[in-house]
Amino acid sequence: MPAGASREEMAALAKADARVAAALEGKTVMKEIVVPGKIVNFVAR
């Protein structure tokens, strides 16, 4: 991730990752937790 990426950019980059996309496939993202420079977490059902 780029060091100066915004929360929205970080979430979009994470969703574009093949492993993340596979894990989220067929699920509804209920919540996105983004801590800039540290973590992106998705809560999905």
Tell me what you see in this structure:
The chain has helices spanning 7-16, 18-24; strands at residues 29-35, 39-44. It is of the alpha+beta class. The longest helix is centred in the N-terminal third of the chain and has 10 residues, at 7-16. It has a two-stranded antiparallel sheet with strand order 1-2. The mean pLDDT is 94. Helices cover 38% and strands 29% of the residues. Strand 1 and strand 2 (39-44) form a beta hairpin.
How much of the sequence lies in strands comes to: 25-35%
Order of helices and strands: HHEE
Helical content class: 25-40%
User: Quaternary state, please?
Assistant: single chain
Instruction: Flag low-confidence runs.
Output: none
Helix/sheet category = alpha+beta
Continuous helix count: 2
Q: Biggest sheet, strands in spatial order?
A: 1-2
Q: Distance between the terminal alpha carbons, to the nearest Å?
A: 26 Å
> Sheet bearing the most strands, described?
2 strands, antiparallel
Radius of gyration: 10 Å
Tell me the overall shape: globular
Mean pLDDT metric: 94
Number of strands: 2
Sequence-ordered SSE layout with sheet pairings:
Layout: H1 7-16, H2 18-24, E1 29-35, E2 39-44
Antiparallel strand pairs: 1-2
Features:
single chain; 45 residues; alpha+beta
Sum this structure up briefly:
The protein has 45 residues and is of the alpha+beta class. It has 2 helices and 2 strands; from the N terminus they run ααββ.
